[in-house]
Specification:
Layout (H helix, E strand, L loop, with lengths): L15 E12 L2 E12 L2 E6 L6 H9 L6 E6 L2 E3 L4 H7 L1 E4 L11 H5 L6 E2 L2 E2 L1 H14 L16 H12 L6 E5 L7 H16 L3 E5 L3 H7 L2 E6 L2 E7 L5 H9 L5 H10 L5 H14 L1
Parallel strand pairs: 3-10, 3-11, 6-9, 9-10
Antiparallel strand pairs: 1-2, 1-4, 4-5, 7-8, 11-12
Helix pairs in contact: 5-6
């Protein structure tokens, strides 16, 4: 099932646009995902975090149509859909920017933005129209690109991320998934990318941020979903938890025997006699 994506409106912010229920994915005898639930809302940044091998990339590929799920249900705007191919995902309004960015260094910004979806006039590429649309898009995102005719090979890591994210917006998606967008970037470039993520949220898009950097996650995310060993490991609202809680969920520290024993000891109520003795001792001290 496919649909034409419409530009999201601010009035729709908070509406669940994508919902996954009971997603399972196997690779032979290996269960990469087991009964995973996940949802994305418009006007929200939801961070998907987890250790290496937790299933983050597999879940992203399921959503992007690169590796369809074996079992489970996917709802798009409340309607059951199947996403067998990346083209289906794009038609629905799902855009994905993978970590490798898939940019052509020998092409300029315009060439990369419209690669494979060139604007034609009389059978020829309309360079003027593509440049106009490129400038308009980058201006809306307040992107700091020296010129749309600059070759991508001459751009910084942060600027390359901006080009890749901008390209994903040409189809007017409602959900954009960003796979490790700040990996290997410097402080200034990371700030540039995070500012762009916030601008996408302000435009009413649903953003899925896959990242190992919890500082970046806490800087821009509204909600954090943890995957652990291919299963849901927790869901948190930013502002209600700290990084230690999320790290504990990622590593399973809250699930081990030592942590459980410590938690039980912390909540053990002292015997009535012990409580009375303690109070008498307090009175005597007075």
């Amino acid at each position: 099932m496919t649909a034409t994506a419409q530009e999201p409106s601010r009035a729709a912010a908070g509406t669940t646009v994508l919902s996954l229920r009971g997603i399972n994915k196997r690779f032979g005898a290996v269960r990469a995902l087991t009964d995973v639930d996940f949802e994305v809302r418009l006007g929200e940044v939801v961070a998907l975090v987890g250790d290496n091998g937790a299933g983050k990339s597999t879940l992203v590929k399921v959503i992007a149509g690169v590796g369809p799920a074996d079992d489970g249900e996917i709802l798009w705007e409340g309607r059951p859909v199947t996403i067998p191919t990346p083209h289906t995902a794009q038609d629905l309004g799902l855009a994905t920017v993978f970590q490798d960015l898939a940019l052509c260094d020998n092409l300029d910004v315009v060439g990369n933005l419209f690669l494979g979806q060139e604007t034609l006039r009389a059978g020829l590429m309309d360079e003027v129209e593509m440049e106009r649309r490129s400038l308009e898009l980058l201006r809306q995102l307040a992107a700091k690109i020296p010129s749309v005719r600059t070759r991508v090979a001459g751009l910084s890591g942060g600027q390359r991320q901006v080009v890749a994210i901008s390209r994903s917006l040409l189809g007017r998606p409602k959900v954009v998934m960003l796979d490790e967008p700040t990996a290997a970037l410097g402080v200034a470039q990371t700030a540039e990318v995070l500012n762009l993520v916030e601008r996408l949220r302000e435009q009413g898009l649903g953003i899925v941020l896959i990242s190992h950097n919890l500082a970046d996650v806490f800087a821009v995310a509204d909600r954090i979903v943890v995957l652990r060993l291919g299963r849901n490991g927790g869901e948190y609202r930013v502002g209600e938890v700290d990084q230690e809680d999320v790290v504990a969920a990622i590593t399973g520290a809250k699930d081990n025997v030592v942590a459980e024993r410590a938690a039980r000891r912390a909540h053990v109520t002292p015997p009535a006699g012990a409580a009375a003795d303690q109070e008498m001792g307090t009175e005597g001290a007075r």
